[in-house]
Amino acid sequence: MSADNTVYIYSDGACKGNPGRGGWGALLVAGEHRKEICGGEADTTNNRMEMTAVIRALESLKHPSDVAVHTDSQYVQKGISEWMPGWKRRNWRTAEGKPVKNQDLWQQLDALAQRHRIEWYWVRGHAGHPENERADALANQGVQQAGQP
Asked: Mind telling me the catalytic residues?
């Protein structure tokens, strides 16, 4: 993956109550271009918002791309990188035989990931990483939007 044509995605989710009112946000950076997206849902969970942020960011890419996804969610990063192959082998069941939570979103994320060459990175949340902090602000903006009729 070469740095000059890579799309960098910084994503975050937020939830006021879990479950509760939630929001997601993503910052996409490609060269000199920057795009910010966000949204929210009235009744959701933090994990669903973390996943939705990445899904919406990948959906916004018009062409198959080299992508570096930065998330502060270990659930997203480990889910896609480590856990998903086993879930798929077990027909979307955990190692304990229980249905995988958020299967609908995992399947969407899996399908979108097939279109791109993606490297997944975990970053510590609320640690001063400028792009992650911006994604956090966008996610909180999404929470506010979810609270409006």
From this structure: 12-13, 50, 72, 126, 136
